[in-house]
Amino acid sequence: MTGNQKINNTATIDGQTVKVREGITILEAARKADIYIPTLCHLENLDSYGGCRLCVVTVKHMKGFPTACTTPLEPGMEVMTRTPELQKLRKEILEFTLSEHPFTCLVCKDKMECADFMHSTRKVSTITGCNFCTSNGDCELQDLVETLELTDIKFPISYRGIPPVKDNPFYDLDYNLCILCGRCVRICSEERNSHVLAFVERGNTTIVGTAFNESQKDAGCEFCGACVDVCPTGSISEKMGKWRGIPDRSVETSCVICPVACKMNINTSGGKIVNVGPAPGKRTNPPQLCLRGKFLPVELNHHPSRITTPLIKRDNKWVEISWKEAIAYTAGNLEKYRGTQFGIIASAQDTIEDNYTLQKFARKVMRSNNVDLHSSYAHKELLKHIHQFYSLHPPAGFLEIEKADTLLIIGSDASTSHPLLENRIRKAYNGGRRVIYAGAFPTRTSTFTTNRVLYTPGEETSFLFVLLSALVKKYGSGIPGTVSSQFKKPALQKAQEFAGISGSELEKALSILVKSRNLMIIAGDDLLRHSSPLDIFHCLVNIHFVKSRNHSCNILFPGYEGSLYGGVLSGVHPDYLPGFYSITDDRNIRKWNKNWQTRLSTTRGLSCNEMVNQIQEDGITSLLVMGDIPPHPDLANLKFLVQCNMFRTDLSEFADILLPVTDFLENEGHVLSLDGKLKKVNRAISGQGKSKSIPRVITSLAAVMQESGFSSKPADIFREIRSFIEIPYSNGKNVKSGFQPIRLKPQKKNAAYPIQVMLRHNHFKYRGNRLTDLVPGLHSITDEGVIGLSPSLMRQLKVKEGDQVRICTETGESLSISRPMPELADHSACLFSNGTDSIKLCGGIFPGTSMISARIEKA
Amino acid sequence: MAGSIPLIIEKYEPRDKGNLIQILQDVQRTEGYIPREAVEKISSHLWISKSEVFGVASFYSQFKFNPPGRHSIKICLGTACHVQGGDFLLNALKSVIDISPNETTEDGRFDLDRVACLGCCALAPVVMIDETIYSNMSVIKLKETLNQYE
């Protein structure tokens, strides 16, 4: 490049000089310079499409009218965007676009007055006017008609008469309003990689649709709602909140439902949530959302059966009482049950501040260490190990996932558990990265992988052992001899035999792993909820240890349900004080006695399952439950049960008092995302009815019980936590690292219970409340009370799809509906729990492991 | 017949999207139409979604989505036939044997296509059933002609 060109590295748009960057389009440059060019199909973050033709411009010395969104800006270009000729062209293009979209109101000369007086509404039928469109006021066509001053359309009204689709649970489709801009099709394929929507047919019969017009669900829709956000017209609209009007306020907060903790905008109007979606004036929600983040918060917050006043049980009837009475009654009763007979079951889907306050209340006021989270790990030390690992090797950020050259996904169906993590995996796959999926059976995630290794269910350790030995063989020099001797041939053969893996798929996967320079391991909870999770964890750490000696290696542990890690870090754990300080260490007890000005109990606490299983006269006699837990029959023997929830559930049968609490849209605080970032939760609307936040409830309880040191302000609580512990990780100074020995043992086989049943976690939960009970539409999306059986098992049991089968384990039995799952390995099954069968099958309210041995028979 | 679909698909490289139209043509040739099952199989073989496979297939009029009838009716709607009342014939078929273009009757007797020109405009309107061309058609003549086919 000569010096002269360098100086002239500029172009002009409407006479304004703009800088030319490599690859920038005319449209992008114009937007940057604040020059408005109308568009309908263009969307930031997506590839240019050039479909709507509204962004036509003229460029000096260039023939015709190039579209600004697809033409790269070059040095020396002289672009005009608003000549009368262009405006005329645009008007005509818009007329064509509108000829198949109801336009009567758009060009009505009375439209300004009509907004106030509606005097012309009746002259226009529903299907041709704006007044009955859900997007009225938030429509890009309306805006464009204004901008281009379109007052007349020469074409006759052509209504296509396509029946609206209303059969899917969260959004409605009316293709009569569709202008075929292709945004929904593109976001579905390019951004979400779901590929559900496509243009079908051709010419004037083209619509956006699915194969053979099948339902969205059958076409594989994940109901992420991205298409709803981007639609410039009203053809795709949310079922909930679509008639609540145009948002007058938008608050950015973080989702607490899964540990990805996505950024979300809550749009409200008059104190009611309109939707969770892009901020007003925008069409995309850059971080994207999933079904749980996009649709469920709205459904839950304004749910008709939400309780908003404290309720007390009198003569077996629920009676509304005031907060003052409720607090006095609760505090009075709790006073009687101080000590180890009391326990709190908290939720990982609450903020760090909420959980810190709850455990502080249990430990300081109630003098009990019985605090645990819903669905915490059965292995109590596992999270401490993860904490120590993260302290040494902080988790990589989400963006690193796409940068890694190889991804290894083990034991995770991220498409249902962490959809936005999955989104990154799919992008990495599309970006040509090596993605290896390892699991007991293929899932949706495994369709976005380059390699797939399927091992025998329950043999995760053996599988990891095989991986590890391949790495040790390659990079093992310098590792002590005792370590490498573990990976002799017989051991390796044994492991391969246990894991049931061999052949070219394995060889390919191993060679990719060995060759990778930047490896990212995503170890899901199906892996960590194994019967011997520490072995698994050590294998992973070893793989990290060996790999990171030469190359970059990262491990992510995406847990279930909110931030388990954040919850335990804030102290909700029977064995650990906040910051993973063990209560068995006297120094820690002294430190926290000083911190909280109290005398802590040194008796080790009980986990959720232990608490419920030890309900008896000299065991647990009273509980405080945040949200909901499965209704174990023993709960009837409790002397006092407080339920803090938004809904009355099956558990409420046993509760003495129900305290209405706010949900995360009405709360403030922080959550910890799975990539180790503190995310801020902001209050989007005020609490419904008389609901109170957890810190406010606890503070008033503590005050009545004559205890001090509690604050109801999240900011104060956060400051307090920060002053005592390092968040999110310690500096890792005192953490040992290195190669951990591994014991390789086959899983125990029990002849009486020969079938390995994998337990699928129900991800549709908020604070333990089963969302399928609350949001009926979810029934068509998720399975409950269903057992998937391998084809060989179906034949052996002589059952057909839909037959009832009995599942028997050592602790009990339950019934389930059978369904064939051809992807399962022989003699294995997959149980989609109905929420209560874990009580019978696993002997606890939460299953400790992700797999159980069972006998299955035809019922 | 349905057993031949996997055989056709297996001939092509998995995950190679470029073969989509070839596969569709092969299926259309052997089966006479693109069954739902084929769309599913192609989708899982090439790793592209069912919607996308259908989107491509429905773009081209050469692909049909209904099994062919025992006899195929082609109604010409080229300029001459159109002017001479080809539309009436189309409507008559709708009322007589309840069939619209690109469909097959429920009893599998006929399928119906509309074509642009059969090359005998002087004899308009023209209908072609199987290989026979019927000229100067009228609704009554069409009804009588249909009776000759079982």
The first-to-last residue Cα distance of chain A is: 80 Å
Structural class of chain B: alpha+beta
Q: Please provide the ordered H/E string of secondary-structure elements of chain B.
A: HHHHEHHEEEH
Strand order of the largest sheet of chain B: 2-1-3-4
Beta-strand residue fraction of chain A:
15-25%
Approximately what portion of the residues of chain B adopt beta-strand conformation?
A: 5-15%
Characterize the largest beta sheet of chain B: strand count, sense, and whether it forms a barrel: 4 strands, mixed
- The radius of gyration computed from the alpha-carbon positions of chain B, rounded to a whole number of angstroms, is 18 Å
Write down the overall mean pLDDT of chain A. Answer: 90
Q: Can you tell me the CATH topology of the largest domain in chain A?
A: Rossmann fold
Query: What structural class results from the helix and strand content of chain A?
Result: alpha/beta
What fold name stands as the CATH topology of the largest domain in chain B? Answer: Glutaredoxin
Largest sheet data of chain A = 7 strands, mixed
Q: How many domain regions of chain B?
A: 2
Can you count the helices of chain B? 7
Mean pLDDT of chain B: 91
| CATH class (first level) name of the largest domain in chain A | Alpha Beta
